[in-house]
Specification:
Layout lengths: L1 H23 L8 H6 L6 H28 L3 H30 L4 H4 L7 H33 L3 H50 L1 H12 L15 H13 L5 H8 L4 H32 L10 H9 L2 H34 L7 H22 L8 H24 L6 H25 L13 H18 L16 H25 L11 E22 L3 E7 L9 E11 L5 E2 L4 H9 L8 E8 L2 E5 L7 E6 L4 H8 L3 E3 L4 E9 L1 H8 L8 E9 L4 E2 L2 E4 L2 E19 H4 L5
Antiparallel strand pairs: 1-9, 1-13, 2-10, 3-7, 3-13, 4-12, 5-6, 5-10, 8-9, 11-12
């Protein structure tokens, strides 16, 4: 309890610092809509850049990206490099265009920038789509904060989401985007420091870089390969999706709004330098934290998105845990308020332009948008997979990027699309993103996100550009020069370029198929394996209770046992027993007393009836007529029983382990058969009924009013390692 209080105090301390910085912005703010949404276009480049880092990364980096790294292993490097390169191009060219257009046209929303004028039909559609995706994005931030509070303080995720809603509204009302930027800047500093400390500790826990590599390899050799396995559409498309995803930063209204707060183009250049100087080490630190969490928390029922907060809980003192928790929570909330403000700008500037200068109405819109995002976040708790921060962020980021980036690119090239042209591109992008996101479920594909790991940025932007080129060729109202101020290359030039691209792509794919894991199972292929198991028992409950004749004892238990690292629960058993302790002779007179003295008779065995109820499981036992009862729930139809059915085990006296030899099977299939997936979690309800029996004999009656019953719960846990049989049993020389 004292540790929990320490974490809470530290959490509130750091959160108070962040809140104080935000409130301090009220001293310099102006009560105008322009100051509320773009800070009067006079923000310092360093503050805007640090705010962009915090806004872009936020809860996604702490929660979602750590979870993705946990699943992917070393090949996460492609996401880091390609995404960073895409962001660099966005800052160098597209942000320059956005900044210039924003200054010249005095617009405050990204939806206004992709139209000739604010309030145009395409601007209204862009604003509506912005509100939709940004609300989902903001919901992901609220969910991140809820998950962090759940792990570190044990609070229900719903409580964290509601607290986040209150803070978002407070941030927005305190100082608008100025308060958001100021708090973001200080949060960026704490995020870097906290991540550095946690990364240092995590690497120490796993045994440094060599221990990290060995730990990942022992779980799955594919985790230590920089090439991902089993890409349906090839390596080139997979990497390109990350690059385009990085480019999608130019389509994020909450980040673009930071650019709009800058005064000159030189300010933009300075902000770009600050952004990458701050962003790059942060990505590196988070990557190592995600990899270390995979080594330390390898249970199949572990939620990968809880890796960072769990790592902090297991390795840091209370003040450090509080700092990490405050950083996660404050960063998510600050990002959420940036997204809410961006939605507000889209609504007041484009959907309802008559509200553009109405400051009070603008704040009311902010409140409604925040409430809408909160509803999405709460609803996700009750939808399978709806609370996945990574999935929510992927949908929002790539959805926004696909809608806005193609329009920004063609406008940067000098092409001026009319309303129909712009709307068609946006609808095409939106449709492709949605279809691609639900395609794995329809086709029963096993993918990380989107169709077999290719994120929606590729089909989304691809559909938008396809619509652009088709309309340029077949629509009279659209210019036939699809490249704007740039000349369309000659056919010969395009042919040569196509051949070069094809050659480079073929070379890349050949390298991929050479060096990538060649198993279709992403682990060891079909062969002979030895499963080495270490088995233990946990007994969190061992109680005695007197049960009167004809009464039922109700027992309730909620799982709160810490399972040792690497072990998984595969079985729970409820036991109970009693001994005849209080059955007494009951003579009524001298004759019976004499009879009892001569022949006391024997005690009658009482009967018991027990039940165990957990989730959909309901088991019962009658105690065998002797008061000893056993009810067992297996958390896997396979597990240990599957191993026993597969092969008779060998016992290793030196290591106290069982060895199971399996033939003609893949490593992945073994993992799947041993998976338990957290079925042991949750609430247990049990009951034990006792019916006392009267013993003795006709001349010496006995009475029995009940028994002292001993009941206990045993959880069986198992840790296993899979080795090729020739490694477990090397051939003798």
């Amino acid at each position: 309890m004292s540790g929990e209080i320490g974490i809470l105090i530290s959490f509130l301390f750091f959160l108070g610092i962040f809140a104080g910085v935000g409130l301090a912005s009220m001293r310099v703010k102006e009560d105008t809509t322009d100051d509320y949404l773009v800070a009067g276009r006079g923000m310092h480049p360093a503050l805007a850049a640090l705010s962009a880092v915090s806004t872009w990364n936020s809860g996604y980096m702490f929660i979602g990206a750590v979870g993705f790294t946990y699943m992917m292993g070393y090949n996460i490097i492609w996401m880091a490099v390609a995404s960073t390169l895409g962001q660099l191009i966005a800052w160098a060219w597209l942000y320059k265009f956005i900044h210039e257009e924003g200054q010249e046209r005095n617009v405050r929303s990204l939806s206004s920038l992709v139209a000739e004028k604010a309030g145009a039909p395409e601007a209204k559609l862009a604003a509506i789509l912005s509100v939709l995706f940004l609300s989902i994005y903001a919901a992901a931030q609220l969910t991140s904060g809820g998950k962090a509070l759940f792990v570190m303080l044990g609070w229900d995720e719903l409580i964290g989401i509601l607290i986040g809603f209150v803070l978002v509204v407070a941030y927005c009302y305190a100082g608008g985007i100025r308060a958001s930027i100021w708090t973001d800047a200080i949060q960026s500093c704490v995020m870097i420091v906290g991540s550095l400390i946690l990364c240092w500790i995590a690497l120490g826990e796993v045994g440094g870089f060599s221990g990290l590599d060995a730990g990942l390899y022992s779980q799955d050799p594919a985790l230590t390969n920089i090439m991902p396995p089993n890409l349906m559409f090839g390596f080139s498309m997979w990497v390109l999706a990350f690059f385009v995803g990085g480019l999608a930063v130019a389509g994020q209204p909450q980040v673009v709004s930071r650019i709009m707060t800058l005064d000159t183009d030189n300010d933009r250049k300075q902000a770009m330098v600050w952004f990458f100087v701050w962003q790059t080490p942060f990505i590196i630190l988070i990557t190592f934290i995600g990899l270390a969490s995979r080594v330390l928390f390898s249970s199949n029922d572990f939620d990968p998105e809880l890796g960072l907060p769990m790592l902090a809980m297991e390795t840091m003192p209370a003040i450090g845990i509080g700092m990490i928790l405050a950083s996660i929570f404050a960063a998510t909330m600050s990002t959420a308020d940036s997204q809410v403000l961006a939605c507000t700008a889209a609504i007041t500037d484009d959907i309802k332009p008559e509200w553009r200068e109405d400051h009070k109405t603008t704040k009311k819109v902010t409140l409604v948008v925040a409430a809408f995002a909160t509803v999405i976040s709460v609803g996700g708790l009750y939808i399978p997979g709806g609370d996945s921060v990574f999935k929510l962020v992927v949908l929002a980021v790539y959805g926004l990027g696909s809608i806005f980036v193609p329009l920004l690119i063609i406008r940067w090239m000098g092409y001026k699309p009319d309303s129909t042209h712009s709307i068609t591109m946006m609808v095409s992008a939106f449709s492709a993103v949605i279809v691609w996101s639900i395609l794995p479920a329809i086709m029963d594909w096993k993918s990380v996100s989107g169709a077999d790991g290719i994120f929606p940025s590729i089909p989304g932007m691809g559909a938008a550009f396809a619509a652009h080129f088709i309309m340029c060729n077949f629509r009279e109202q659209s210019s036939n020069n699809s490249l704007g101020r740039f000349a369309i290359p000659a056919r010969k030039t395009m042919t040569i370029a196509g051949v070069v691209v094809l050659f480079l792509t073929a070379s890349v794919e050949a390298s991929y198929y050479t060096f990538a894991p060649d198993s279709s199972d992403a682990m060891g292929g079909v062969g002979n394996y030895t499963v080495v198991t270490e088995e233990k028992t946990l007994s969190p409950m061992d109680e005695y209770e007197y049960i009167s004749d004809g009464e039922t004892l109700e027992i309730f238990y909620t799982w709160d046992v810490e399972v040792p690292t690497g072990f998984r629960v595969y079985e729970v058993t409820l036991y109970w027993m009693y001994e005849e302790t209080d059955e007494t002779t009951d003579p009524n007179g001298p004759v019976e007393q004499a009879s009892c003295f001569a022949n006391p008779g024997v005690d009658a065995l009482d009967s018991t009836q027990g039940e165990l109820n957990h989730d959909d499981f309901l088991g019962s036992d009658d105690g065998g007529g002797g008061g000893f009862g056993v009810i067992t729930q297996n958390f896997s139809d396979r597990g240990i029983d599957w191993l026993l059915d597969s092969n008779n085990p060998d016992w290793d006296n030196e290591t106290d382990t069982w060895l199971y030899n399996l033939t003609d099977i893949s490593e992945k299939e073994i993992h799947e058969n041993l998976a338990t997936n957290g079925e042991h979690l949750g609430d247990y309800s049990m009951s034990i009924r006792l019916d006392a029996e009267v013993g003795g004999n006709s001349g010496c009656p006995h009475s029995d009013e009940g028994e002292e019953v001993n009941y206990w719960i045993v959880f069986k846990i198992m840790k296993y390692n899979i080795l090729p049989t020739d490694e477990a049993f090397p051939p003798s020389e």
